[in-house]
Amino acid sequence: MNERSAARPRGGVLRWALWGAAAIGVAAVVYIIALSSTKPVTHTLAAAQAAAPQTHDVARKLEHVGDGKAPPAYTFYDAAGKPVTPAAFKGKVVVMNLWATWCAPCKIEMPTLARLQAAYAGKPVQVVAVSIDKPEALAAARAFLAGQAPLVFYNDPQAKLPWAMTPQAAGMPTTILLGKDGLERGRISGEADWAGRGARSVIDKLLAES
Predict the structure, then answer these.
(1) Residues 39-61: pLDDT tens digits?
(2) Fewest CB atoms less than 10 Å from the CB: which of 38, 84, 89, 195?
(3) How far apart are CA 12 and CA 196, in angstroms?
(4) Percentage of residues in the chain with pLDDT exceeding 90?
(5) Can you tell me the mean pLDDT for 164-170?
(6) 123-153 pLDDT per residue, tens
(7) Would you tell me how many other CB atoms lie within 10 Å of the CB of residue 175?
(8) Between 74 and 14, residue with greater pLDDT
């Protein structure tokens, strides 16, 4: 075997080695590109989610436009048709929710109010969900709230309670928080998550007041 023929196998081996190294290098580059293209996206998405405003958080949405005011001595009715006023709940932290069956956000947030009431079972916290549905929609309102245990039904058939508040309710739903002294401690206009930690922190603070 001469030197030229002996060099061919070595050259072939070298050529295959170079091709193999190149292939491995390409695979490594592809892997690094893929890795760098996925990790930042995941990280960015997580960061965006963490930074996104919690639009339905009670603690964030709470307004204090009527703090210190007594609720109106306005009469609404319980499930048995007995007249009730907000003063009847004095001594408890009251979450008075004004809602109606024609109000989609009202119906969306109602299960969270039910979970809030259940979470404070045995404690002086009362969710008072007052429907402002007119008499012709009363059956539908009762049926809806019947599925929201442990909430009980209240109704304002004249639908004037929102406008009797000071200041007036801005829309439906509106939820007014009353301290154990019966005075307003905050309110929320629009849908809120009453089952979240923000709600619990607000209620716990009101419970701690003497």
Answers:
(1) 333 333 334 334 334 689 999 99
(2) 38
(3) 70
(4) 72
(5) 94
(6) 999 999 999 999 999 999 999 999 999 999 9
(7) 28
(8) 74
Strand 174-178 relative to strand 93-99: parallel, antiparallel, unpaired?
antiparallel
Residue ranges of alpha helices (H) inside the chain are 3-51, 58-61, 104-119, 138-146, 161-164, 197-208
Q: Are the C-beta atoms of residues 114 and 120 closer than 8 Å to each other?
A: no
Q: Could you tell me the strand order of the sheet in which 153-155 lies?
A: 83-84, 76-78, 153-155, 125-131, 93-99, 174-178, 184-189
Which residues neighbour 131 within 8 Å (Cβ) at sequence distance 6 or greater?
Answer: 99, 100, 101, 138, 141, 145, 153, 154, 155, 156
Spatial separation of the C-alpha atoms in residues 121 and 128, rounded to whole Å: 14
What three-state secondary structure class fits 63? strand
d(CA 182, CA 89): 7
Q: Is the pLDDT of residue 90 over 80?
A: yes
At which residue do the structure tokens 């990280």 appear?
A: 43
Identify the three-state secondary structure at position 20.
helix
Helix 197-208 to helix 104-119 angle (10° resolution) is 50
Kindly state the tokens that stand for 202: 């607000």
**Mean pLDDT across the stretch 17-26?**
39
Which residues, 6+ apart, have CB-to-CB distance to 54 below 8 Å?
60, 193, 196, 198
